[in-house]
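Annotators were shown the component list below and the corresponding predicted structure, then asked to write short factual statements about the assembly.
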Amino acid sequence: MSIDTEIPVDEVTEPWWELTRQRRLAVQRCGVCGLAQLPPRLLCTGCGGDELELGAAGRRGIVDSYTVVHRAPAPDVAVPYTLARVRLVDGPILLTRLVGDFEPRCDQPVVLTWLPLPDGRALPAFTREL
Amino acid sequence: MTVAVVGAAECDLGHTGRSAQHLLAQAVRRALDDAGLRLCDVDGLATTSRLPATQLADQLGLCPSWTDSADAGAAVFERYVARAVQAIEAGQCAVAVLAYASDQRSARSRRLGGGYDRGTPEAQFEQPYLPLWPLSYYAMTARRYLHTYGLDRGDLARVAVAARARALANPAAFRHGAGPLTVDDVLAAPLVSSPLGTLDCCLVTDGGGAIVLTSLDRARHLPHPPVAVLGYGEAVTHAAMATPEDLLTTGVAASGARAFAHARREPADVDLIQLNDSFTVSVPLGLEQLGFCPPGSGAAWAGTPVNTTGGGLSYGHPGQLGVLLVIEAVRQLRGGCGPRQIPGARTALVHGTGGIGSSHATVILEAA
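Structure shown to annotators:
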């Protein structure tokens, strides 16, 4: 898997990315309405509030849908790979990858794993729950 | 209803060897000829962010009093129809030209991965996983659609087969001479982003076109029977692939419902549906979301005719299909589409979808 090694960050998302160095998946929680959201934003998409804090996310999720990519978007990218929308137990949906040797299906439970990045950060991905 | 479409024309389509700006000027000239108007009559101009109205105005020697150059993917032209109606009603301009052209096939400029602006959240949270853009989003929608309704790839393949059959009746279609398609052909084509294969995906062609709008009063003195803008609606739902709660509840529903309410019409009144079919799944899901048929049944649709040109799947797709959807609706409502003419067509619904199902706009047109 070839991945852009210079994934940009901004002043709101940087703490979220820093937690990935410790393989900790966070969601942003609203101190006013309690909504959990990803990616981190300046304002809560539930109530517009700005009292948002990062908190630990559960490690489990459900595959909403997936697709196996057979055509590489760039010459140096190895195919096939499996992209998925995974709904975290906390609520937010992530675009992510499914890794490991299994046939995915919609509504399947999956569990968090990490894809390391060259700079020490990591991308959350999911695999079959054992 | 006070505003009508009075001119409509395509520029060259396919592999033209021409540049986008000259295809654009060609489209404008042809649409004005069709309208019986001249360049000096034009005081409103809208294109897309790819070739902004400022540049087209300069190219044409115009100093318009109303322009727009928005970035809303293929939905932008249905949105512009609404904007142009509003501008003409408000007296901001009298004759508006909405134009689009692309040389993406000749220039080989289409990229499977799309391109994420570094300043967007998607550049951080989606691009690293390397989705094909917009293809992988529609692929996940298709997978969820098949899963939810217990269907398989063969059901979606029927959409491509039907599109090809219509292209065979349209001499302008890129696949006009390609012969009929079978479900087996579609299933045997290489997968791109499962469950979508190459024949589930729209063509990549040069092409485009332009339409001309003016007041209904003025329209009655022009060569063609006017096609009135009866109503419109819009919806914007998301930019990121992860945002929608439910892939099968799309912005088509809200946009369509707003247009029907505005036009005081309902699905049963519609004689022609022009729907953005960048991928096979967009057609059944779109028909269902517009209220033409129940959820899960759209792939077997045999009711009101859809995409009579052959659509993005078999007619042509220059990147932003929206203007071409309007052009065909106008022609059908005027009559004279030859073998593909829908007899007595009076009311058309045109729905444009942009991005990854991100932006939507619906227009209802009627022979005045």
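Statements collected:
1. Chain A has a mean pLDDT of 95.
2. The helical segments of chain A are 14-20.
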